[in-house]
Amino acid sequence: PDISVKLTPRGGKPILERLARDILERDIEDTLVAMDSDYDDFRGRKIDDRRVLYSHGYSWENEVYASGNLERVYCTLCHCGIAPQEVRDQFEIDLAELDVTLKRATHADFYALCSGSSVLPRRAPGRVIASDPVSGKPSIVRTELIKLVGEARSKIKKPMTPHTGPPKDALRFCVGHVFAFAIRILIKAVASIHYGRLSVPPDHLRDVALLTFSDFLRSDAPHAVVQHHRAQSALI
After folding, report:
1. Strand pairing category for 129-131 and 52-54
2. For a 10 Å CB count at each end of the chain, is N or C smaller?
3. Residues 116-132 pLDDT 10s
4. Burial class (CB in 10 A: 0-12, 13-18, 19+), 113
């Protein structure tokens, strides 16, 4: 409460990284830089300083749609105070399945990015993620993924060795736009079972998730996302 913070958008990740390094080199004390982690944890690219704040997962989407906040989003959309136990159980099952669904695509994108390319389409996630015609749950469009992997391979001139292996937690490190697209499908699938047909425009889902995320961060939830941001804030 005794700290006043002015927020200023400066641009994408490359710009923010340059600003962060400049802050460290010039030892500027009253400026912070906040940015997405992307795959930096696995590429040895993280800037370790209290003035540089990173998202817990690949980007902010992986945080606002994390399991701890997802129940809050559901309750807001479906007008219930507390998520019923059967809804909580459904989310646990479906998120575990989604982690498996996204893992291979996330690994492919990680290795491609380490070599200067990419696989997952940031601006067109619907190209690789679709709603299963039977279950309504998010699924991978295998033909498109294979095609994108082939395109990425053709662009790679010199494969680079990553700092570590690929991320094991696909829900945390899947490309944010792709993850958000899959989560929207998942929420609609869960709602169709326990609430009814739900129309959720992407912008509305985003706004609801950001609104509930504020309460989530203030809660006593023993969730990794909450602990991550508390730890970063404590260093400021």
Report:
1. unpaired
2. N
3. 899 999 999 999 999 99
4. buried
